[in-house]
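thread: overnight batch results

M.L. [08:02]
morning all. the overnight job finished for the chain we discussed friday. pasting input first so we're all looking at the same thing
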Amino acid sequence: MFSSLTSLTNPMGSDWGERLLNTVANKTIRYLFTQSESVEGSIHCYLSSKLLQGSIDSFKMSGRGLVIRQEFRAEEMTLIADAVAIDFSSLLRGKLVLAQPTQAIVRVTLSEAGIDRAFGAELVKKRLQNLYLPALSDISGGNSISFEAVRLQLIANNRVQIWANADLSNGELVPISLSATITIERRRRLTFCEPKFEADSVPESQREISQTLSIILVEILDRMVDLDRFDLDGITIRLNQLETQEKLLIFSGYAQIERIPANS
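M.L. [08:03]
and the structure it wrote out:
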């Protein structure tokens, strides 16, 4: 350890310190994700004396093809933070430990295909299937109703097109087609505003029941898409804005980082 401290106190030691920081950071941040195509951490400390005191000038994490909680895929994610305080002694043990919580600017990109796959995740399906809701009782006759084959298309001006089938548990499948505007509520929830039933996509004989089911599906989706359910270990994400670009949904906001996940 003494030799490590000595090398960090001379001009060449600054480079050595940054290399050590980046090696440990890259090893550590991979533990945030179940899978990743690429993930890279870049840390800079311009004065070796600051590093000895546990002070980092900047930190950036960028990744592609990131899978969160085994089933939710982000095409890209970027975290950028300034003036991060770390426990220097943990760095020499090959770990990255924050001395105090920090905030980072965050940008997350989801693809249309990734969102569609998320509707097949167990965490999502259990909120869409075998439902006994008061609003459904007149339609179902006391039986459960399931929303299946949910698909989403991103369109301009932060709007989405949603298709699904409602299984009424009596052998009848009711197609659902609607559009809505997606917005952010309390920086953590996605809400589907201004829903519009798309009658032309539904057989005339089923339009009335389909319209009712469309309203119920939107209400379920409003309660479902809460970022608190998908927080990374030790990292809470809050959103300021979103934007649809072709087949991509792009979020920007900030991340409150309480701790870096431990690695083995």
